[in-house]
Amino acid sequence: NGGSGDMGWGCGYRNIQMLCSHLVGSVPKTTSAQHASKLISNLGNAPSLESIQLGIENAWSNGFDRAGASQLGHKLRNTSKWIGATEVVSLLRYHGVRARIVDFDSSTCSHSEFFKWVCEYFSHTQAPTTRSTHSTPYQRFCCGRPPLYLQHQGHSRTIVGVIREWHNDEERDPVLLVFDPGPGFSTWLAAIGQERISNFLAAAISTC
Predict the structure, then answer these.
(1) Per annotation, catalytic residue among 74, 155, 169, 173
(2) Which residues of the chain have pLDDT under 70?
């Protein structure tokens, strides 16, 4: 959980901290890894909220997400303004880290399509570390892919992996492994159960 000083508005920043923590020593030795190193050197392994705010403002100053910058008055430092997936992607792209936004709109996409996309993201080109057997009817994917920044209805979380389970040879709904920087996780679970969460924005980082 985030500190009480940023409760209600700091989730986006806390999730950026999680992404930065993953990038430290976790990316392959590629051009993208060099850009990730630049991001870490500028912001730090677990950057402060103020340094993240400054980084986003610098991205805006260099032409990233002009619409978002205008909406937020071109200023984040010393404020409690919320940030979302577009600000995260702007920050990453400004530092040369490849990132994209995938929009799951409830008017065109179902919850199952969202979960399927997340499963495919984490299982892409990788075999599961645990295979399904009679005694262990699940598969856990640990492929080293960067976490996903998940934005929805005024809050964000970090998806770090997925577990796929079977029962009597039939696959159950996948289980997402989620880091939540805010309180009230039971409320989030209840919202999913009642399908009150409608629109998702997933920010995916590519380090390949």
Answers:
(1) 155
(2) 1-4, 25-45, 124-144, 183-208
